[in-house]
Amino acid sequence: MRTRGTSSGLTWRRSNNAIPRRFTPCAMGLMADIATASAGIERARRRLAAGDLATARSEAEAIVGGAAGSEERCAAHLVLAVCCDKAGDAAAALEHTRAAVHCAPGDPVAYYAHAEQQEASGDKAGAIASLRRAIEIEPRFARALRYLGILLGETGDAEGAIAALEEALLIEPNHSRAWNNLGNAQRTLGQLAEAERSFARALALQPDYALAAANLGEVLRDQGEVERAETTLRAALARQAGGPPFRAQIVLLAGLLRERGALDEAERLYRQAIELAPRESGGQWSSLAWVLSERGAMAAARDAYATARTVDATDLRNLLGKHLTLPMIYADTDHLAAERAGFAAGLSALQHELPAAAAALSEEKLLDGFRWTNFFLAYQGQDDRALQAAYARLVAQAIDAGASRWRHRIEARPVTGRRLRVGFASAFFHVGTCGRYFKSWITDLDRERFEVFAYHLYPGMDEIASAIAQRADCFRTFAGMRARPSIVAPAIRADELDVLVYPELGMDACSFALAALRLAPRQYAGWGHPVTTGHPTIDAFVSCDVMEPQGAEAHYTEALVKLPGIGTRYEPLTIPDDASRARFGLPEDRKLLLCPQSLWKIHPDNDALFAEILAANPNALLVLFEGRYPAVGEQFMRRLTRVLSEHGVSAPERIRVLPQVGHDDYLRINLVCDAMLDTMHWSGGNTSLDALACGLPMVTLPGAFMRGRQSAGMLQLLGIAELIARDRADYLAIAARLCRDPAWRVDLSRRIRAGQARLFDVRDAIASLETLIQTGALPA
Fold it and tell me: Which of 6, 184, 260, 726 has the most other CB atoms within 10 Å of its CB?
């Protein structure tokens, strides 16, 4: 499940600590340069500076009521405006700045002061107009340009904000806060590289500028530069040693640590952020809940979500988390069954609680509040259609009640004389399973017939993202704080697509929320996360014919569409030629059985199977990879060690757990192993293709659902059905023969390599996909 650290958000204010700005006497400081200052005004200013409001007011009122000229009366009204504001009489302060403008319509300071009071009264449009007038009178009024940039940014005109701030910086180029605000405006428009330069400039001008450091760390994160982001934030916090830390930096650093699995430090930082601002800590309680759930502390995680809900009732994710969060690792099948029952009970509770919670929200909060997925549900190995559909109904009812325009049907547009517009939205346009699987869906489409839009919902650009960007007619990025349905949905709908494709739904929270909306006349889900979405707004689920069982249509709420082969044109891999067991500390004299799956994909039913294989084959070692997060690995190994012990097998002697490695080294590990043990209920996908590219034989037992049948489909295409087990006993027999019959293994490897042309670089699926997109159906 794709999650991100909490965003610090845009802060356009001038204070280092982002304290909301009220009317200040800054206009008084400007008056000495711009406005006429008589002896009376000077006395009033001195009394005001000394805090003697009564005398300052008296002096100014005498000027206003006397025979002074218009400029002097303007200055007196400004003094009175400050006095009234300090006394808490905002309405009177506004009247005095209005009077100042009336007295001296050519005085830019009067307009500036009036803008401040207009903003304080809630009239930002009026404030913007006053600032524009001040700048029209005095084009080099840098302070007014900076203020205008702030207000334009806060009211959604990022382009106008950039223009105003850049003009201000031409006049006063060393103003650190102007650079920070310029970075905010650039980030709003997705100009992340430009924003990085602006935040870095702000920090260079003022090294202790904590807000700029936080913003720089965040924009680095949003570009995928996570190591630089962490270094920036740690350095900024170190500069504050001995003083109170800047909370936004703590929150951002905690999110980065959570992402890379440093859960102990992430938890400590989240708790520190909560202690610094308990009343503003809803997001941190929610993030803490995620950390706790990853550790398997489910009761504590749910309690944390409940606390987050009491702190921030406007974020629906806290309510969803309280009822629907699931563990990554199950202690055994009884634990799995209990958690599944708890999930169903949570859906029932939400039927009563969600409608009222959603009804109190703005459209933006409502859409963004459904950034949630039931990702771990699919790894329980059961039919999820009813549960997924129940969740989707809850979401649909809430959106229909509070933001129904986003679910209205969109009529198909005539296509005569134009290309069909097809969009692809994903948080996985990068090197990884989904990127490798689905890149060709985008890059290979016939550009004579299709105009392709790609919506990149995750930070950074790598070789796959760059290849997609180069081939797409339009490539839009929504990294970090911009990856929200309230921002992405309008952008997609504005592109007037004919077809919208989500290659994987259920792995990323933003795209799963988008899938509940109607953004195109036809909307399809790919099998990147091979389980029904439940959403009635998804018209078809695009899968692979060779991987679906008979009657698979009953597993989906969507219409099931099955592409030929493995459903994509998967590029051939470049296989290293320098693999050795010594490189990875693996013994030369043992049979190495590789199980490379992410640990949460290994259902408890696999444990006894592995134990029996190891018990029956004393020379065999099971080769696993560490979990991305240490806590997950610890939970999994406790479970597997217990089951192996029950079968008389010593886990320390019979299991080798390797660290996470780069893809080339991962392929080398495949090359030095003897066989791969595919997992029940959730088979290998990309891992199986990697193994077969290396000629590594595998044994698989097809499951009831597509997600447990991918390896079997690949072997079927290769014509090597003897590695597809009929039942559990057959799986054990095949595994035993792979351990004991080296000649058979060599022949299998030869046949796998000989048949690779039936798996890799096959374009049939793309042609079928083109037909589906063009016509809405596959050829009979």
Answer: 184
**Topology alike, domains 407-571+763-775 and 582-758:** yes
- Going by C-beta distance under 8 Å and a sequence separation of 6 or more, which residues neighbour residue 73? 63, 64, 99, 103, 104
Whole-angstrom Cα distance, residue 256 to residue 221? 8
Residue type, 518: R
pLDDT tens-place string over residues 476-521: 998 777 799 999 999 999 999 999 999 999 999 999 999 999 999 9
Under CATH, which number does the domain 407-571+763-775 receive?
Answer: 3.40.50.11380
Distance between CA atoms of residues 473 and 497, nearest Å: 13
The DSSP H or E segment spanning 519 is none
Residue labelled with tokens 């809850």: 394
The pair of structure tokens assigned to 368 is: 């963004």
- Phi, psi values for residue 643, rounded to 5°: -70, -40
Hey, what amino acid is at 357?
A: A
Instruction: Give the Cα separation of 434 and 527 in Å (integer).
Output: 9
Domain boundaries, the chain: 407-571+763-775, 582-758
CA 663 to chain centre: 24
pLDDT in tens, 366-392: 999 999 999 999 999 999 999 999 999
Report the CATH fold assignment for 582-758.
Rossmann fold (3.40.50)
Task: Please answer whether residues 392 and 432 qualify as being in contact, where contact means their C-beta atoms are separated by less than 8 angstroms.
Answer: no
Query: Could you tell me the strand order of the sheet in which 675-677 lies?
Result: 655-658, 620-625, 591-594, 675-677, 698-699
